[in-house]
Recover the amino acids of this structure.
């Protein structure tokens, strides 16, 4: 079993030579067996060493001997195609307006058309189920990430492209962030607000620079945004953090803005 320090050293050595990959290859694959207690720390230290010219994607699993492993896939970025995966946060309930379901279907179709993989919470009910079903019906790739204790509560989707079952809610959030190149929130409840706030906080702390967006259907997120403005007005949040999150009333406008912003910063 590789110790955490050895895992980080391995990642650094591998990434140091990524500028000249073997002929005909555009990706690198690392198989890491960290100590169980060091899972999240190992994820973070490896991610921190990655060159911006490469997309990191993580997959966690247990091998045939029952040893926990991390599979780290690095894919070369292609010009103009910076966001390959977007994490979508949304409600496990459909909400009281049909507009919420319509916006969810529209977003799913748009992401498929842009060849963007969807990462989400793996549920089959509410807006979560609508998102996955619509994307899969149009031939999209949908990756679900869910903690084991929520598999029955959120009614696990049984037809996903990939499924990751984590040990905890914290590990679920971390893995969703690592599997994604950007984040979009549709209307939802406390879980949705918690998830988008967490990635927003991580961005504020410099843990990532991935784009964030809100589909503000029926002005659902207006009170949420007003809370940000109040925090800025009262001196609890720096004004520059206002620009770290993009909002639009419909999925098409939001995705256009996020892709344009991503192209500028890539």
């Amino acid at each position: 079993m590789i110790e955490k320090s050895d895992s980080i050293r391995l990642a650094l050595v591998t990434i140091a030579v990524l500028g000249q990959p073997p002929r005909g290859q555009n990706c690198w694959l690392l198989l890491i067996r960290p100590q169980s207690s060091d899972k999240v720390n190992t994820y973070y230290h490896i991610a921190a060493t990655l060159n911006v010219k490469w997309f990191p994607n993580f997959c966690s699993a247990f091998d045939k001997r029952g040893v926990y492993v991390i599979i780290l896939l690095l894919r070369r970025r292609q010009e103009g195609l910076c966001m390959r995966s977007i994490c979508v946060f949304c409600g496990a309930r459909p909400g009281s307006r049909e507009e919420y379901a319509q916006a969810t279907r529209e977003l799913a179709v748009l992401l498929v058309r842009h060849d963007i993989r969807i990462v989400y919470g793996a549920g089959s009910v509410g807006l979560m189920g609508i998102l996955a079903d619509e994307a899969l019906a149009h031939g999209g790739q949908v990756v679900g990430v869910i903690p084991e204790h929520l598999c029955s509560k959120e009614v696990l989707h049984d037809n996903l492209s990939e499924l990751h079952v984590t040990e905890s809610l914290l590990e679920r959030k971390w893995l969703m962030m690592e599997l994604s190149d950007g984040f979009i929130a549709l209307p939802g409840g406390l879980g949705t607000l918690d998830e988008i706030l967490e990635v927003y906080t991580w961005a504020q702390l410099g843990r990532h620079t991935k784009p964030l967006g809100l589909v503000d259907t029926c002005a659902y997120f207006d009170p949420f945004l007003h809370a940000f403005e109040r925090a800025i007005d009262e001196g609890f949040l720096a004004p520059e953090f206002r620009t770290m999150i993009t909002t639009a009333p419909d999925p098409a406008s939001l995705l256009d803005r996020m892709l344009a912003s991503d192209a500028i910063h890539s």
